[in-house]
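Fold this complex.
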Amino acid sequence: MDVELRNRIYAWFVEHGTAPSAADVGADDAALQRLHDAHALVLEPDDSSIRMLNPFSAVPTPYRVEAGGRSWFGNCVWDAFGIPAALGVGGHVSTTCLDCGEALEVEIVARRPRPSDLVAHILLPARRWWDDIVFT
Amino acid sequence: MNLFRSEEHVARWLDANGYEPGATLSADEMCDLARAWWGDRLAPDWRPHTLEQNHAILDELGLTGEFWRLA
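Structure:
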């Protein structure tokens, strides 16, 4: 894996708030595809644009995160809780319960979520997560 | 991997969609997992986790058993 390229892409994303193109980080589509194949990022299925830099999403999702004075999107609850952790700050996660549609607001302070009586559900077993990472 | 109001809401959503149950974690457990899994992603010296490292994270949090095996 080209770790230096991967790190440049992540640094670009955090600095700009949007995913870079291959040219933005001095790479080409084939290099991005190799990182996709190594599960270092996720490309859109129909072109070479970046969809996921886990835990960050480059596209809007139902998991909005406020952290470090910025707004982000997580790919799922695991990722949404991971964004403040990756940034080394507290944060606030906004989403809705998939069952009832109720708004769920979670404050993460000192590494703890409040309220803490919510639950996360992981549907697929671990070995199937990358079969379809967008569904996962 | 979604957040729900409670375990009852998870059960109702699974039933409504015809899904078999997976694993349910408390918000605290998910927070611990997220920190252990993603906490180093922006580190300048980041290197890919090995399979063994990821399994060690899961084991440390008590997430054991076939459901949590990555390969």
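Residues 27-38 of chain B form the longest helix (12 residues).
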